[in-house]
Amino acid sequence: MKTLSRWLSFILFLLISLFGVFDAQPAIAKKIYALGEDALQRGDYAQAIQHFTKHLQNTPNKENGKTLTRLGYAYSQLGRYAEAISAYQDALHLEASENQSQQTRFVKAQALLGLGYIAYRQGKFDDAIQFYAKVVEQGAAGVAEAHHNLGRIYAGRGEIEKAIEAQQQAIAKDPKLANAYYHLGVLYSRKQNWREAITAYQKTAGLVPTMPNAHYQLARCYRQTGDILEAEKAMQRFRTLKRADADIQKHLEAVFSANADKKVETLRKLANIYLKYERYEKATQEFERIRKHSRLDSDIAQVSAGLGRIALEQENVTQAITHYKHAIQLGLKTTEIYHYLGIAYMQNLDGQNAIKQFQQALTLNADFPESHLMLGTLYTTNKKFKEAKKHYQRAIALAPEMAAAYHGLAYLYGQYDLNLEKAIKLARKATELSPKSAPYYNTLSWLYYKTGKYNEAETAVLKAIELAPDNPTYQEGLKEIRQRKK
User: Fold this and answer.
1) How far apart are CA 330 and CA 377, in angstroms?
2) FRET partner for 365 with CA separation of 20 to 30 A, picked from 97, 162, 186, 300?
3) What is the pLDDT of residues 169-193, one digit of tens each?
């Protein structure tokens, strides 16, 4: 019996081991595919090819259509067109059955779009048109992109009206296809239809605010219409974005060339550069990549802090608090961490916890003006005059160009009807430092009103209305001032 029991135990162990292996295979294949996608996102096409090729070797043939299209894309981006064509044709061959599932249609569309792209790059425009036309004929996935690419071919041939129609069809299928709006703007510019071009470029910039060329083209169109002020604004935005792109490219190259010891450091710098330029999706991707290279608490704490800042910028306050608290738990206790955690609590209407965080930030750095400003604001709300005054004055001493501190102190004096002439000087200083802030002009108007200077009050509130014409509070203020002047 003991021998039989041992054999049964051995067989059971063997079965569990085998099934464990078999169950692990799909998970391993999925991970390999994910690594390939990650490499594509980074633009590391050679590594993507390695992962996708390995994935093909570890999955049943019938499941490989999508992987083949991604492999074809990676080859095409390296200019290895023969290999790309082979991968795309293999994908089409796999999906040649009558089964027209959503996945099948998607794979076919991606393969045809890929073949169209290669034909276009090789100057075989008639072939490219045929591939894109098949995508349109299929009428499912990829139709918007096919119309867009047809539009580009027609534009290259000088068939402007056909090109415009194709881009409009692309937009009809996908109203968020920024490239279609951009090329529509180019086409309208060629026709010297500047107003339509401006509308198209504005739509592009709205969908992709970080696209430099959209702002450059807007500047050109505005100049053609004589709107020099808007032209200069657009050109300034273009210059800013170009500098950002150059900065980002420098850090991307550093990541690519970094050895294993420096990989995490370069990834963190890249993520923070994306964060600096408000590229939140890219920043999130790079912070998440750090997790794949390091499990050190110090590195994960930096990731949590970065994700906290992104969540805060995107007004996801609960998530921001969670990330910042995790960073602190892992040992990242800096002035900036506590300050931003305080802001998150403020936005979450938790003033008590916010005060604690700002006080902790000042414990680490007593000369951090932003935390003094926030404490001044919170103590004003809590009707603690002396504490609020102290922190506003300290913020001004540390950062003489901080308009919000002058405004906060002016408002504080106004609340208590103290030092009103000084309050007016402080409010004027705030408007000088931040001349486009409607609330600052409204506070200045309120202070003038309190001292009986109705003409000055009217001038200030009219400026607030000019900056924010839809604000009913300013309109009511103007009405009340004019009634007093009668």
Assistant:
1) 30
2) 300
3) 999 999 999 999 999 999 999 999 9
